[in-house]
Amino acid sequence: MSTFIAAFVxxxxxxxxxxxxxxxxxxxxxxxxxxxxxxxxxxxCDCDEPCDKRKAREAAExxxxxxxxxxxxx
Length: 74
Known about the structure:
Layout: H1 2-25, H2 36-39, H3 52-70
């Protein structure tokens, strides 16, 4: 039981230190330098033509944007 409590306290201390670091620097925790950028891929979907799901999502977002600008009060 003491091992569990010690591990929990250490984990809690790391979370506390990371949150203090975020509050001071105002910079989010970042991932590694690897990933898709290393492979030369600029986006997750590197297709010439977007898939149907993405087209539908973009159309819905555009319709939402148009409704917001049309119904704007100010």
